[in-house]
């Protein structure tokens, strides 16, 4: 209604589609933008799928996010990046990010599971041709892996920029899927003598290993100390 | 030659194909079976790609390996598992497994990289219809996540087996890709005042969290203590 304040200009969810509504465990699916963003921002390696000669190809690659847009980069010679350049209307892709949070050990083999958070993005990837957007995207990719790093490194020069392709993928057709919590054993299995529970998993960083040729006086930067 | 002993009945590498020879960083590619097996055996979550209505789909799922065969399981209602049942000649898939071992921070943004080990398998996935192979595959999947667990859980009953589909994928068209080592900066960048080096990454297990309803006297099994 006119004059009624809206909570936000943007809807808080991605509209579900035939492709983003799972055929099973639909209760684990979510279209919440905040959840999707948080899962995407916690990772930096995605699995990018595309179709080549009618067959699927899935490759691991780095990504970064800026608002409702993802960026993926690579050599101008790599297959998906060449294909987005060749295919005029862009390249149909599926970009998936998965975090494994725990092993769920039930008393029954059947109810064994994994606690995880994943995001699946369907869309059309397109080459970034605007030099300014390309440069910004490359900074974003570096900062997505190590926040604060982009400004603490030598920016790409003209030759390096020319050797790098960047593709963008808008967040439009997107779903998250999350499993949390404990075991879901059948009531009649509870008395079985098998241990049951959850083994948490996490990604941990080891001690940074400096290059042998560091310039004299180069200290470990603060953004690495806090990793 | 007749009488000449062969080192093995099986060749030690997967024959490279057009699909498994990368267009870039070909020096990082390997077809060595032992390396491929070791990468596959260290993980349990893969990203499975297939084509649906002409578009790529990439979903995370669990897998297990038995010799030169991989198994993936899921609900009989999930899309890739239904599709292998529907499509008579099987379903063309690409199954990818990736381990991230370290962040490579170079002095130049361009030479930032990731140390990783990945395996990409192309092939035709087929439903496992033989009950014995299906049961063995399900044990394998449980043991692939937690070695020793299959015999310490209640086996699937007839109803659970019927609700579970298993697909198999033979290791034929396979490649590994590995990046290890330190930074590869340009010689003229070595004097720059930016820290450079490698931040190791690893997956760690937290303290197992027992279910609240464990049968009295159920201790943490030895195979979890050694995780």
Lay out the secondary structure.
Two copies of one chain form a homodimer.
Chain A lengths: L28 E2 L2 H10 L2 E8 L2 E12 L2 E7 L3 H8 L4 E15 L7 E15 L3 H15 L12 H6 E7 L2 E7 L17 E9 L3 E2 L11 H4 L2
Any descriptors?
homodimer; 227 residues; alpha+beta; Pnp Oxidase, Chain A; six-stranded antiparallel beta barrel; globular; disordered N terminus
Descriptive report:
The structure is a homodimer of 227-residue chains. Chain A is of the alpha+beta class and 227 residues long. Chain A has one domain: Pnp Oxidase, Chain A (Roll). Helices cover 19% and strands 37% of the residues of chain A. Chain A is built from five helices and ten strands, in the order βαβββαββααββββα. Chain A has a six-stranded antiparallel β-barrel with strand order 2-3-4-7-6-5. In chain A, strand 2 and strand 3 form a beta hairpin. The N terminus of chain A is likely disordered. Chains A and B meet through strand 2, strand 3, strand 5, strand 6 and helix 3 of A and strand 2, strand 3, strand 5, strand 6 and helix 3 of B.
